[in-house]
Amino acid sequence: MGKIFSRRGDGFAIYMLEAELMKDLEDGTQDASERGKIPPLTDEEVKHLFDICKSIHKISGVEKGHEVVMTYDGGTNKIPRLGINTGRLQTLQIYERCFGADTTELSDPDYTYRQVKPTLRDDIPMMEQAQLLMVVPVFYGAMPNLGIYTQPDGPVPNPMELLPVGKIKEAKAAYEEAVELAVRDIVIVASAYYEAGADGINIDTVGACGDPDFKAALLASEELTTKYPGICIEMGMAGEFVLGMHGGISHNDVKLAGLYPHEQVKMAQAAGVTIFGPTINTKPAKSIPWNIARVATYTKACVSAAEIPVHANMGMGVGALPLCLTPPIDIVSLASKAMVEITDLDGL
């Protein structure tokens, strides 16, 4: 019996026996089930994943009629990363007219709401021009990134310097002050772009600084939906569970630290978010089949709990894709097919 080509979570090629492949699928779904306290994949779903993962094709795909919507984060930053000299408007056109993207996103290379606020006057005309150029929806996106509010770059004392010397109350107070500042910046920037014609706002990489970061995103979403009824807000997470950097922050009487995707989505939709992007971390030392089963288990539970569309984050180091700068297309397409067919999500 020949071995099956696959990859590790770091992108390196490996070969697996059928028994090894099946064991990794079973172990992956069990890991997610135990950590998230959610049901594992059924035997039938594991067998379906097995058939997908042993594919010999360079590119995998879903059947016609089963395609899902694609949204993008940091869209205008990614083509220039490849050394292709294009402006942001041209990059949007490439996504729409070359890649067939369902949506696009205008964003700044410094992908943080606080950092882009001083350049709003110069960048707003670009959104207005984008609306004249594009047919597909054009979002504006950036991160809350509470870390950038801390000294020496920001106004708030750095909790990472306060905690080691036992100043726990002061560290918590610093996080709480950063939340207030971040909410203000997100609302100012998002309002400006929405009024300039943006079809939606992406609050991305939420929770990168833990529970204060998630709190800021939720409060900003609530304020924006009150200010602009019907606004489209996409919230993409930073990781599979919310880190307790503060540890005591709650929202609507729910403690934010430790929430998994199926719990995060409930908080997001209650805050007025209209598209939710769960993020599950790829384990580089494990096989891609192990990671796919794990990610599918988390995402399936998230979709079941959601009342809004779920667009799973799939990129370098998340969503069962390898932790490398340019994930190989064989695994990108295979993992995407698995997510669509197993989890019943709405988009990627």
Top keywords for this entry?
single chain; 348 residues; alpha/beta; TIM Barrel; 5-stranded parallel beta sheet; two-stranded antiparallel sheet; 12 helices; globular
Quickly describe the structure.
By secondary structure, this protein is of the alpha/beta class.
Write a structural description.
- This protein has 348 residues and is an alpha/beta fold.
- The chain has one domain (4-343): Alpha-Beta Barrel (TIM Barrel), CATH 3.20.20.
- The protein is built from 12 helices and 9 strands.
- It has a 5-stranded parallel beta sheet with strand order 3-4-5-6-9. Strands 1-2 form a two-stranded antiparallel sheet. A two-stranded antiparallel sheet has the order 7-8.
- A hairpin with a 5-residue loop joins strand 1 and strand 2 (13-16).
- Helix 1 crosses helix 2, helix 4 (88-97) packs parallel to helix 6 and helix 8 (168-195) runs parallel beside helix 9 (211-227).
- The longest helix is centred in the middle third of the chain and has 28 residues, at 168-195.
- The model has no long low-confidence stretch (mean pLDDT 95).
